Amino acid sequence: MFDFSIVTHWIDNLLRSVMPGWGALLIEFVLVGVALLLLYAVLALFYIYFERKVCAFFQCRLGPNRVGPYGIFQSVADMFKILIKELISLNHIDKFLFNLAPYLVIVASMLAFGCLPFGKGLQVIDFNIGIFFLIAVSSIGVLGILLAGWSSHNKYTLIGAIRSGAQMVSYELSIGLSVLTMVVFAGTMSITGIVEAQNNGWFIFTGHIPAIVAFLIYLVAGTAETNRGPFDLPEAESELTAGYHTEYSGIHFGFFYLAEYLNLFIVSGVASLLFLGGWMPLHIPGWESFNHVMDYIPSVVWFFGKAIVISFIIIWFKWTFPRLRIDQLLRLEWKYLLPLNLINLFVMVLIVIYGLHF
Amino acid sequence: MNSALFVVVLITGLALVGAALLIAGLISPRSFNPQKGEPYECGIPSRGESWMQFKVGYYLFAILYLMFDVETVFLFPWAVILKDLGVAGLFNILFFMVVLILGLVYAWKKGALEWK
Amino acid sequence: MEVKIKSMKYEDFKDNEYIEQLINELKASNTNVVVGCLDEVINWGRSNSLWPLTFATSCCGIEFMSLGAARYDMARFGFEVARASPRQADFVMVAGTIVHRMAPVLRRLYDQLAEPKYVVAVGGCAVSGGPFRKSYHVLKGVDEILPVDVYIPGCPPRPEAMFYGLMQLQRKVKVEKFFGGVNRQEKREKVLGK
Amino acid sequence: MANIQQEISSFLPEATFVEGTILEVSVPDAKWHDLALYLHDKLHFDYLVSIVGMDWGETLGCVYYFTCTADNSQISVKVETADRENPLLHSVTDLWKSAYLYEREVYDFFGIRFINHPDMRRLFLRNDWVGYPLRKDYDASPEVNPIRLEHEAVDDVTHAIVETPDGKLEERTNTIFAPEEFVVNIGPQHPATHGVLRLRTSLEGEIVKKIDVYCGYVHRGIEKLCESLTYPQTLHFADRLDYLSAQQNRHAVCLCIEDALQLEIPARAQYVRTIMDELMRISSHLLFYATFCMDLGATTAFFYGFRDREKILDIFEETCGARMTFNYYTIGGLMADIHPDFQRKVKEFCAYLPGMLKDYHTLFTGNVIAQQRMKGVGLLSREDAISYGIAGPSGRASGWACDVRKNHPYAMYDKVEFKEIVRTEGDVFARYMVRMDEILESIHIIEQLIDNIPEGDYALKMKPIIKLPEGRYFRQVEASRGPIGIFIESHGDKNPYRLKINSACLPLVGGLDPMCRGGKIADLIAIGGSLDYVIPDMDR
User: Fold this and answer.
1) Residue in B42, B53, B115 to test binding to D, most D beta-carbons within 10 Å
2) Chains with ≥3 Cβ pairs under 8 A against C?
3) Does C106 sit within 8 Å of B32, measured CB to CB?
4) Taking CA atoms, what residue in C is nearest to A62?
5) Is the peptide bond preceding residue C156 cis, with omega within 30 degrees of 0?
6) Beta-carbon separation of A61 and C46 below 8 A
7) Which of B3, B66, C78, D88 has its CA 20 to 30 A from that of C22?
8) Cβ neighbours of C156 in D, within 8 Å
9) Contact indicator for A215, A204 with CB cutoff of 8 Å
10) What is the pLDDT of residue D198?
11) Chain C within 8 Å of D352 (Cβ-Cβ)?
12) Are strands D169-175 and D157-163 parallel, antiparallel or unpaired?
C-alpha cells in the first residue's frame, strides 16, 4: 500500500533544502490550501453531475448529455453561469448576517473536509480528538442556514430557517450518539487511529449488530444533517419555494448549492471512515493472498469509492421517498432513533467490555 | 503543526468565498428597479414585517437537546478509555445516563415530544 | 463567427434575422482577443446552463412539465434545475395566458430575476392573447409588459417546438457580448435616485 | 316532479313554474330565503350545483340549480331584481356553503350584492376594476380598465350587508386577518398550487390558522367571449378550461347543445366519445398521481406518471392531431373518424397500465412516509362535501356517491357495467386512492367498448349556423375532477345569450380553509394536491 506521507515528506525535505524553515512551511501551507481548494471544487462539480445522472436514470431519463461527452461538463457550465450571475442587493435584509451566512456554510464544510483521510498519509488536520472536532465543525454549517433564513427578511426563508433549527437540534444528537458508539468500539477519537484499527476488518463487520444499527442511524441522521430528501424540509421546494436560500442569488446561492453537495460527500466520507474502514482495503482475516491483492488498489480509490457508494445510497433515498412533515421528523428522532441509539450504545459497551466482538 | 493546518484550512475556506465573491462582484451585471430589492413572496408584495413574533413549536426539543448534547460531551472521554475502565466505568456512567433517560421518559410522558 | 449548438446544424438555424444581425455586429466590432475568448467561455457556460423559473398559468404549463418529464427530458440540455425563486433563475417561460390581475405579478417576478435574464413567450396566449385576444381581462401578448426574447407559437406548442425555441435562446445567448454587452453595471443611485 | 311543484306551491303560493327537463321555480326576492330554507330542510335539496348570474336586460338575477343527493332529482329557482343601480338579493350562504364563492362570483360579474353574505369582495377581477363585465351594458373599451402594473391594494377587512332582525339593511365590516397575524402568500407563482392560485395563509408557527383564497389570476373571460360566438365556435374554449379533462368538457358543451336541439347522435360517435372520455380521465389521474407525489416530495413518481401519460397522448394525437387541445367532439358527433390503429393501441395500453399501477403503488402508496403524510389529513365529512359542493373524486372519497355517469347517465354509461368508487374516510389518502382506483375502472369501461365500436357515421350533418330554441338548458358531465355543468340560455339566436360554465374546481378551493385549519403547511400542500384543482377551470 502506497503511503502518501512519503510524497509529502519528500516535498518537505526538498523545500527545506533550498530555503529557511519558515519559507518552506509557508509554501507548504499554500500548497495544502490550493490542493484542498481544487479537490473541493472538483468534488463538488463531480457530485452535481453524479446526482443529476443518477436521478435521471432513476427517472427513466438520460440526464445531461449535451455539454461535453455524456454531459460531463454540465456542472462546469453551471459554475461559470452562476459565477457571473448578478448578486441582487436587497432592501430590508440584515446585511451583515446575510453576507456572513455563506462564509459559515462554506467554512464549516471546508473544515470538516480537511479532517477526512483521503488516503494513507493524505490528511490535512489530524487531531487526537479528530472525530469530535469533525462533529463540532460540521454543525457550524446549520448555523449558516439559520442565519441565511433569518437575515433574508422573507417569510419563506424564516420558516425554512426555523425548520432547519428544529432539524439540527434533533439529528445532531443521533449523529453524536452513533459516532459515540463507534468511538466506544475503537477506543480512540483520532481519525488515523480509527482507520488503523480497522486493518483487520471494517468496524461494520467486526462490531456486528450494534455497528450495523449505528451505521443505519448514522445514514438517516446524516441525510437529515445535510438537508437532503426526504429530510429537505428547510428547502422544501413544493412548500417554501426555495426555502432558506430563496433570496440568495448568483454565487451566494452557488455557495449553498456547493456546500450541499460537499456535505453529502463529507457525511458519506465520515460514514466510510467510521464503519467501512476509511481508506483501508477490504481485509479478511486468514485470506492472505486476497488481502494482498486488495492492498494493490490505491488507498485513495478505496476511500473515494466507499464514499461514492454511500453517497449513491443517500441519493437513492432522496429520489425514492416523499418528504417528511416537521412533526414526523421530530417524532422519528426523539421517539425512535434516540431510544434505539441509547440501547445500541449500551449493547456496544457490553460487547466491548466483555470482548464479544470479532 | 495541526493547529497551524487548521488555520490554513480555515483561511482556504474564507479565501474560496472571498475570491468567488470578488470575481462575481467585479464582472457580474447589475441592474436596479424599485421592486428588485423587495422580498420575494410568490410575486406579491409582502404583508407587513417578516421579522415578527413567530411561534416556534419546538423550544422544548431545544432544551432536551441541550441536555443530551452536554451528556454526549461527557460521554466521549469516557468512551475512549472504556476498555481500561471495564465494568466499573460502565456502572459509573450508567448512573449518569439513567438519570438522563429518566428525564427523557418524563418529557415523553408529559407530552413534550409532541409537536404543538 | 459561427454559433455551435450540438446536434443542430448551423444551416438549420439560419432563419433568424435578429441573430444574424447580432453576429454581423459582433464581427464588425473587432473585439479584443482576451475579452473575446473570455466572452466565449462565459457564454458557453451561460447558454448551457439556462435555468427556468417554474412559472406556468395554464395549458402550456402542462406541456412545460412534459418537457421536463421522462420522454422529452430538458435536463439533457442543461435546463434542468427549474428554480421556484426568481433570484436563481435565468429565464422565465411565460407559459399560458397572462390576465390583468396577473400582469403586476409577472412584472414583479421579472423585475426580481437576477441579471442576465431572458423571457420566452410560450403559446398563443403569451405571444398575442391567442384565442382569448378579444377578452376584457387578457393581455394581448406578454410583450406589452416585458421584453420578450423568444416567441414559441402554438396552442399549446408541442414540446419539440419548445425545444426549438429554447435552442434559439441558447443561440441568442451565445452570440451576445458579455463584457460591454450583457453585464451592464448600473449604478443604484442613477436608477433609483437614492 | 309534479309532487315537488305541489309542495312548493302550497308552501309559497306566489311561486310560478316552468316545466322542462328541470323544473324551474320563480320567486320574488322577498320570499326567496324562506323558499331556500324550505328547499334545504324539508325537500332535502342539499346540494347547490350552481348559481348562474343573469342579466335579462331590464332585470338582473340569478338562476340556482339544486340537486337532492338522496334521489338525484333536480330543481332550479329563478330570482330577479329590477333595480339595476343597486341590485340586492338574499344570500343563501347560511344554508349551502358553496354559495359563498358562487355569490361572490355573481357579484363580481353582475354587481348583484347579497344580503347577509359575510364577504362581498370581488372574486376574479382586481378589486379596483370598473364595471361588471358580464352585464350586457358593460363598457369593454380598454381605456376604462387599462393594464395596471401596480399591485392591487389588499385589504384585511371586507364589507358585508347585514339584515337586522327588524328588516333594516346595514353595512358592516368583517376582519379577515388581524394586523399582528403572520400572513404568507402561497401562490400565485408557486410550484405546488397547480397554476396560479393564491392562498393567503395565516400561520402560527407551522400551523395554518386561516386561508383566504384569491382566484382570478388566469380569469380569461370565456363566458363573455362565448356570448359573441356561434355555438360551434364556443366549443374550442371547452378544451382550454380544464385542459386535463378537455374531452369531457367538450362533451358537456356538445351534450347541452344536442339536448336543446334534441339530436340523436350516431352510435359510433357515442362509443368513441365514451372511450375518449375515459382515456382522458386516465391521463388526468396519471397527471394527478405525478403532481401529487411531486407535492409530497417524491419526485421520481412525477416522471413515472408523465411517462405513462405520454402513451395516452400518443393515442389521442393519432386520432385528434393534438396533444392537449383536441377539438375532437362537434355538435352532432365527432370531427373525424378514429385512426385505424386506434383500437389496437388502446387495447395495448389497457393491457399495459395495470402492471404499471402496481409499480406506482410499490413506489409511493405503500411507502411509510407517504402513508403517514396522507392518512387522517384533511378530513372532509360527507355533509361538508355536499354543502361545499365538493363533488367528483374528492366528494366520492368522503362517501358521497355523486358520479354523474351513474346518476344521470349520458353517452354509453348506462350500457356499460362499472363500479362507482366510493370511500368513506374523507382524508387525503382516500382522495388519492379513489383516483387510483378510478383508473382501473376506466380501463374496465374501455375494455367493454373498444371491441364493439359499431360501424356507421361518426357525425350528423349539421348546418354551419345552429340556432337553439329559446329556453334555459343545463347539462352536467362527469369530468376528471368532478361534474362540469354547462348552462345555456338561448334567445333563439345563433349565439348564446348566456353561457355559464359551472366548473368542478371552484368549490374545491371553497373547502380548502376548513380542511386545512389546524394542519401544518405541509398538510396544506398535501390537501391541495389531493383535491387536484386546475386553476384555468376555476377561473375560466
Assistant:
1) B42
2) A, B, D
3) no
4) C76
5) yes
6) no
7) C78
8) 323-325
9) yes
10) 87
11) no
12) antiparallel
CB D270 within 8 A of CB D465: no
Q: Nine-digit cell at D222?
A: 370565456
Which cell numbers in the block locate residue A246? 430563496
Among A10-14, D90-94, D181-185, D283-287, the least confident range:
A10-14
Enter the C-alpha cell of residue B35.
421592486
- Whether residue A102 is preceded by a cis peptide bond, meaning omega within 30 degrees of 0, is no
CA-only gyration radius of chain C, Å: 17
User: ∠ CA(D351), CA(D531), CA(D413), 5° rounding?
Assistant: 45
H/E stretch holding D210 reads strand D207-214
For chain B, say whether C184 makes contact (Cβ under 8 Å): yes
The C-alpha angle A198, A203, A205, rounded to 5 degrees, equals 115
| Beta bridge mates, D169 | D163
The answer to whether D363 faces chain A, any CB pair under 8 Å, is: yes
Residues of B near C (Cβ–Cβ under 8 Å) read 27-36, 38, 40, 42-45
Q: Which of C:97-156 have CB within 8 Å of D?
A: 97, 99-105, 107-109, 131-132, 134-139, 144-145, 155-156
H or E element in which residue C122 lies: strand C118-122
CB atoms A124 and B68 under 8 Å: no
Residue B43's closest chain D neighbor by CA? D189
> What string of DSSP letters covers chain B?
-HHHHHHHHHHHHHHHHHHHHHHHHHHS-B---TTTTSPPSTTS---S-SSS----TTHHHHHHHHHHHHHHHHHHHHHHTHHHHHHHHHHHHHHHHHHHHHHHHHHHHHTTTS--
**Residue D474: strand, helix, or coil:** strand
**C-alpha span between D301 and A94 (Å, rounded):** 39
Q: Is the pLDDT of residue C30 over 70?
A: no
Residue A339: closest CA among D371, B113, B93? B113
Rounded Cα–Cα distance for residues A256 and A103 (Å): 10
pLDDT tens digits, one per residue of B14-64: 888 888 888 888 888 888 888 888 888 877 887 777 677 776 767 777 777
Q: What's the pLDDT score for residue D481?
A: 87
Cα atoms found within 13 Å of the Cα of residue A75, Cβ hemisphere only? 18
In whole angstroms, what is the distance from residue A21 CA to residue C86 CA?
Answer: 52
* CB-nearest partner of A242 from C6, C85, C114: C85
CA-nearest residue to B45 within chain D is D151
Calculate the CA dihedral of residues A26, A32, A37, A42 and round it to 10 degrees: 150
Q: Over the Cα atoms of chain D, what is R_g? A: 23
Residue D101, classed as helix, strand or coil, is helix
Round the average pLDDT of chain D to a whole number and report it. 85
A18-33: average pLDDT: 79
**D180 class by beta-carbon count within 10 Å (0-12 exposed, 13-18 middle, 19+ buried):** exposed
- Rg (chain A; Cα; Å): 21
For D99, list phi and psi in degrees, rounded to 5: -65, -20
Confirm if A76 and A226 have CB atoms less than 8 A apart.
no
Reported in sequence order, the residue ranges of D269-425 that DSSP labels E, i.e. its strands, are: 329-330, 333-334
pLDDT, tens digit, 9 for 90 and up, residues D13-63: 777 788 777 888 888 878 888 888 888 888 888 888 888 888 888 888 888
Contacts of C186 in chain B (CB under 8 A): 30-32
Cα(D292)–Cα(D529) distance, rounded to whole angstroms? 5
Nearest CA in chain B to D189: B42
Smallest Cα distance from A88 to chain C, Å? 7
For the beta carbon of residue B58, count every other beta carbon within 10 angstroms. Answer: 24
Contact D331, D466 (CB under 8 A): yes
Element (H, E) at A56: helix A21-58
